[in-house]
Amino acid sequence: MVTSITLDATFTIVDTINPIMDVAASDLIIQCDDDNSAEIDAWLATNGGASASDACSGITWTNDFTTVNEDVCGDLTTVTFTATDECGNVTTTEANINTEDTIPPVIGCPGDVTAVTEDGDCGAIVVFQPAVAIDNCGTAFVYQTGGLGSGSVFPVGDTLIEYTAQDECGNLATCTFTVTVIDDDAPVAICQDLTVILDDTGNATITANQLNFGSNDNCGIGNLDIDIDTFDCSNVGANEVTLTVTDIHGNTATCVSTVTVLDLTDPIAVCQDITLELGDDGTVTIDPLAVDGGSSDACGIASYELNIDTLDCSNLGNTTVILTVTDVNGNESSCSAIVTLEDNTPLELVCNDVTVELNQDGVAFITPSLVAEVIDGCGTSTVTVDVEEVSCADIGTPVTVNVFANDGNGNSAVCSVIVTVVDLLGPQIVCPDDQVVNLDADGTYTLENYIANGSATATDNCTDPVTIFSQDPAPGTTLGLGIQVVNFTAEDEYGNVSTCSFELDVQDILGNNNTEDFASLVLYPNPADSKVNLSNPRQIDLNNVTIYDLTGRIVNKIDLSTMGSEITIDISTLANATYMLVIKGSQGTSTKQLIVNNY
């Protein structure tokens, strides 16, 4: 049997076991530029995400957080979280509040910069502002990490400039911009003139370098071009050629050169021998192209010329001619050829009836050329006539004349002509010289028979004596004071008439002065040699002065109507002798004697 004993005892239950930390607290990462109080409070409220359990009772959480460390780049703020159960047992866990800066700075670069080259440099000095940056938490430092610095000489083209900003926590940010340097300087184009000579084919080529005379550019020449590089015969002379200079950046400039193209190549002259025949006129013209045997020139032949282009009878047989070939540019060359000249033209004789006039001697001469025309290309024919002379005896009777021609080459011709002989010459009649005579005592003058006394004569080539020879007025005619014209007429048996006349000045007593004023007239020097002066101090009206020799023949007559007070008379042609000067005026006449002595 089981017995039981009941005992009372007091048990004191003690909890000495710390809470168990099931999940440790987790660190909190916060950004420096934010208001993090709410985030920290929430983190603290959740005990940093820690959890604990206790076997006996609930747990109370506490932490030792006071403030966040101000260092934003890595220093930690350690927070201890404590879990306490109701029995005072505690368990702790630590976590850090890590303040960090992971946001890069905000950086700003200046805009792209464009510059142009200056002063002949292949670049440009470019000044620009640096980049600027701001940071969310502190200071950002800016520095250039790419490209040339401001104020540097930048090359033509694009240069990338890079700036970097770094904050205190090492966060980086970059920006870039482009510096563009434009070369807008055109090159300097410098040309030189050029002379080129066509080759044998009439062509020539040039290069741009031949026209370039030191063209230059600030950055360098890239290319040289010309608009014309090939020349031919059509370009002979001055040609304008444009040189285009392009620099390495595509800028261009031009200049113009004069390219003088010369053709200095002589043509090729080729001759051939030819045979020609004289024409009917005894000549032949040589066509230069007939002598040409195929001359040539690259640029063309302008002319063909012969040193002898016309041949006549003197050139019968072989004649050497020189053909000169000139091209269109004045170059020339020559060759020779033999021209054989033949005369195959028959002789032709044409006769013509003629009328011939007898000459002063009563004869006329018959020449072959008078009665016939020889048509002979060479003109070397011998022509004769069987009657060479006719005379007065042949007047009225036609004369038959035979003409004979021979060209010396076996060709001959004969023809006949009728020659009619005529006398058309009037008698040769001679009149006395002009004369001065005095009135007879009865106040009249009886005209002489000048034919009878031989002062007037008439002769004729075929009529002797002349058929008619007359004087008018007739001899014996009574004449009064004044000038009378005496006419003579002579006629031969064939009706040919000749005339002549002279003046007969019938005066009263020779030398009579009618007015006292004439006494003032003075003739000096006297004797005289080549000149004599007539002085008229009272300037009376005078008409003329007539100089007579001692036979009464007038040797000179001088007008005095405008003489004034004196006139000089030329007597250089007068022979040494005594002469009478009859001075006539409105008041009468005056006679002076002059002695001419040329010794």
Provide a quick synopsis of the model.
The chain is mainly beta and 599 residues long. The longest helix is centred in the N-terminal third of the chain and has 9 residues, at 37-45.
Compute the number of structural domains: 7
Mean pLDDT: 89
User: Whole-number radius of gyration?
Assistant: 74 Å
- Principal-axis shape equals elongated
Largest sheet at a glance? Answer: 4 strands, mixed
**Number of DSSP E strands:** 49
**Low-pLDDT residue spans:** 510-515
In quaternary terms, these chains amount to single chain
Instruction: State the helix count.
Output: 4
Report the CATH topology name of the largest domain. Immunoglobulin-like
* Second-tier CATH architecture of the largest domain: Sandwich
Read across the widest sheet, the strand sequence of neighbours is 2-6-5-4
Helix-strand category = mainly beta
| First-residue to last-residue Cα separation | 237 Å
Strand fraction equals: over 45%
Helix content: under 10%
Summarize the structure in words:
The structure is a single chain. With 599 residues, the chain is mainly beta. The protein has seven domains: 20-100, Immunoglobulin-like; 106-182, Immunoglobulin-like; 194-262, Sandwich (Immunoglobulin-like); 274-342, Sandwich (Immunoglobulin-like), CATH 2.60.40; 348-422, Immunoglobulins (Immunoglobulin-like), CATH 2.60.40.10; 428-507, Immunoglobulins (Immunoglobulin-like, Sandwich); 516-596, Immunoglobulin-like (Sandwich). The protein contains four helices and 49 strands. It has a four-stranded mixed β-sheet with strand order 2-6-5-4, covered by helices on one side. It has a four-stranded mixed β-sheet with strand order 8-14-13-11, with no helix packed on it. The radius of gyration is 74 Å and the shape is elongated. The chain starts with 19 loop residues before the first strand and ends with a strand.
